[in-house]
Amino acid sequence: MSQFPELANLKSQALAELSAAADLATIEAWKSSYLGGKGKVKALMGQIKNVPGDQRAAFGAAVNGLNQEVEAAFAERVAALGDKARPAPAPAVDVTEPGYIESNSIGRRHIINRVRDELTQVFARMGFAVAEGPELEDDAHNFVKLNIPPGHPARDAIDNFYIDDPLKVASPRMLRSQTSTVQVRVMEAAVAAGGGKLKNPIKIVAPGRVYRPDTVDATHSFMFHQIEGLYIDRLTPGGGVSVAELKTTLFQFAKSYFGPEAEIRLRPTFFPFTEPSAELDLKIRLRPEQPVRWMELGGCGMVHPNVLASCGVDAEQWGGFAFGFGIERLAMGKYGIPDIRMLYQNDLRFLQQV
């Protein structure tokens, strides 16, 4: 190494600094300075190209020797310092200790999901099971089998989200405009399971999203949620399922969900899929400063015989009722929400209140 004075000087400097290092931080800094990937010893290898050709082999051997000596000195120094040169052990973790929460704000389910579960629980206590169906439907299930024939105003392209052009496709696909499509599919499945005949009563509720190109305002949205109910049972000499049972079901629902003072009323109307049909209204106060007023929740009625027949159900032996509510309107009524748009704006100030 005496042939290359710069290597000897570097060795002396390195060993002197190493000897002065007395703690872990200084040892690590020294190692990075001399033995690291960009350290002074490693940097010497890059200088070989500047050494005369007849001295390159000797220079390379001298650099390797210096590297080995410095590494050996480092190992000896670490051993001499003992615990001072070793990292402090990490503190033991108590896995039974509660986790640290940076904020007192705890997440919760969205109000729409909570109201949906509340509704299905209320109807479950009355014997209704939960059914679901596809949101991408066809014209047959959304209209034809619900007694809404071709040419009916409800099928206009301006009032529905069609996937296929209804003027070019016989049964165009569409985003369902009502969860009544689930009732149709449930009846079809029950008839198929019975070998072509309905053999058992049907009692279900079908919550889910629906789509209509409505103008967004305080009470309307182009996407919202509905919950539909269907009860089909065998006709008896006494009449079977009746309007009285429908009204009782809705009355019990209102009392269970809104409290014993809830008031409802049924107003006669027309729907293609029920006969007779009615609009269901609830008396509610949305804001403290507003008077109590009637709010429309949805429609109901006795299932039309044409709907039963289109699903393969014998309307001479079976009958029942159906109803459908807007879940957003129920949420607004129960929790005093004045504007439907608040449900979809993701404003934490609102979401933390309800």
Keywords summarizing the entry:
354 residues, 7-stranded mixed β-sheet, 3-stranded antiparallel β-sheet, 20% strand
Q: CATH topology of the largest domain, which one? A: BirA Bifunctional Protein, domain 2
- Compute the CA-based radius of gyration: 39 Å
Order of helices and strands: HHHHHEEHEEHEEHEEEHEHH
Averaged pLDDT: 85
Second-tier CATH architecture of the largest domain: 2-Layer Sandwich
Strand order across the largest sheet: 1-5-6-10-9-8-7
Number of domains: 2
- The geometry reads as elongated
Would you report the number of β strands?
A: 10
- Helical/strand content category: alpha+beta
Helix proportion: 25-40%
Q: Work out the strand percent.
A: 15-25%
- What is the first-to-last residue Cα distance? 80 Å
CATH class descriptor of the largest domain:
Alpha Beta
According to CATH, the homologous superfamily of the largest domain is Bira Bifunctional Protein, Domain 2
List the helices and strands and how they pair.
Elements: H1 5-20, H2 24-34, H3 40-44, H4 56-81, H5 111-124, E1 129-130, E2 136-138, H6 139-142, E3 161-162, E4 173-175, H7 180-193, E5 202-211, E6 223-234, H8 243-258, E7 263-271, E8 274-284, E9 293-303, H9 305-310, E10 318-326, H10 327-335, H11 348-351
Parallel strand pairs: 1-5
Antiparallel strand pairs: 2-4, 3-4, 5-6, 6-10, 7-8, 8-9, 9-10
Helix pairs in contact: 1-4, 5-10
Brief overview:
The chain is of the alpha+beta class. The protein has helices spanning 5-20, 24-34, 40-44, 56-81, 111-124, 139-142, 180-193, 243-258, 305-310, 327-335, 348-351, and strands spanning 129-130, 136-138, 161-162, 173-175, 202-211, 223-234, 263-271, 274-284, 293-303, 318-326. The strands form 2 sheets. It has a 7-stranded mixed sheet with strand order 1-5-6-10-9-8-7, sandwiched between helices. It has a 3-stranded antiparallel sheet with strand order 2-4-3.
